[in-house]
Amino acid sequence: MANTVVDKIIKEIEAHAPSVESEHVGRVTAVGDGVVAIDGLSKAVMSEVLLFEEGKGKKLAEAMKTQAELYGLVLNLEEDGVRAAVLGDTARVAEGMTVKSTGRVLSVPSGEELLGRVVNALGEPIDGKGPFKKTTLMPVERESYGVIDRKRVSVPVQTGIKAIDAMIPIGRGQRELIIGDRSTGKTTIAIDTIISQRNEPKATRPICIYVAIGQKESKTARIVEQLRQTGALEYTIVVDAPASAPAALQFLAPYAGVAIGEYFMDAGRDVVVVYDDLSKQAVAYRQLSLLLRRPPGREAYPGDIFYLHSRLLERAACLSKEKGGGSLTALPIIETQDGDVSGYIPTNVISITDGQIFLVAELFNKGIRPAIDVGISVSRVGSDAQKKAMKGVAGGLKLELAQFRELEAFMQFAQDLDKATADRIASGQRMVEILKQKNGAPIAMEMQVAILYAAGQKLFNDVPVAKVSAVEAQLAEFFDTKASKALAEVKKSGLLSDEVKKELNKAIEEFRLAHSEVFSAK
Fold first, then answer.
1. Over 50: is that where the pLDDT of 113 sits?
2. Which secondary structure element, helix H or strand E, spans residue 104, and what is its range?
3. Given 380, 405, 424, 512, the catalytic residue
4. Is 380 a catalytic residue?
């Protein structure tokens, strides 16, 4: 019996093949404001994820046992070591702590499970609904698709906002900047665009991703609740890096958002990503860069600040059929100071994007919402994706409003106006009223077409300016019941056929007769 046991042990020893595992380990030499200096990681690569091991101190070791693993991100490769940003609580890092290379780049989870959820910049759920079960890891930094892999932008993103869909249309795969001073309605436009996607057929409805960078947590919570109440949260993912989060997470949040979106784009689906806002990301990156002791340039920003945003926004694309036909539309938001679009960060992002929607505080204070300056707002590719019905009714709208703005300024000094000028001003005033819209109330494309068609038929010319908005709301309800067939045809075909025009004209005349008291009291 003894010999049998000994033979068995000898056989197991002979069969054992020892495996050698090597670890690339370093040591923290300095800690400060979310950035650590590490000695010994000679083989570390840029953007590699590092794992902080438990320290020698008893209190620190006990604290780390009860918390999740703490990671860092290599951002500087230096002669005598590396510098990394801590992706979490800096208080848990101490000098002398051991740091281990993981050999992988930073990735975030993505998949269907993320829909309707709120995650942080590392893709970890923070809404209290529990962890994800099945997700796919997507690299935070990835090379954008080349020109050969892309196709022409041809499908619109319906924002549900008349002024934008008519004059500054956005196409799927485009990068359209929303720019303006603080509290001029930038976020409102982005959120209305997300809510508007509920009007799209479920099969072709874009996945929406809202990235909150450096925002108040109360504001983000309010937005999440608004999306939930409107039914938009079911196809939306919220990535939150609040003002209280470390600068490293605020810097990474937009890249996490686009990485999550690329999972759906690669699967052939359409995605809309809102970055709110990139001004705060630039400030967070400046803070990180100064702590990393990189040379400061203009306004103390590092030399690669342009590359920070260009490599993010270039990942927006409309892919060819060979690549699955998916698209990723980017809606970056930039905050200006006192309407100055010539600032360093605004000019950088304007040059990267395919157009901008410029919001003006002066118009906002006058009660014109959305407060869009038609003169310098532009979409360089969206008109190619605009529905023909919308093109037909909105053709001269932008020019008409731009001329009205000039005449409005001139009108303050002129005593007598000739009839043509007076008529143009009156028409412009009514069009401004028609284009006004409430927050959180996006309008379907076919209804926008019908209202703008009615405006083109001079329906509102005899309505007092103060009553235009009320009459427009009544007209929308009237169209819903009396011209539902025409609206359905516009939605289906995207065309304004003669039959549709005939039905709309009939409904307009019926409306005029039913509300004759409004039209007579000019």
1. yes
2. strand 98-105
3. 380
4. yes
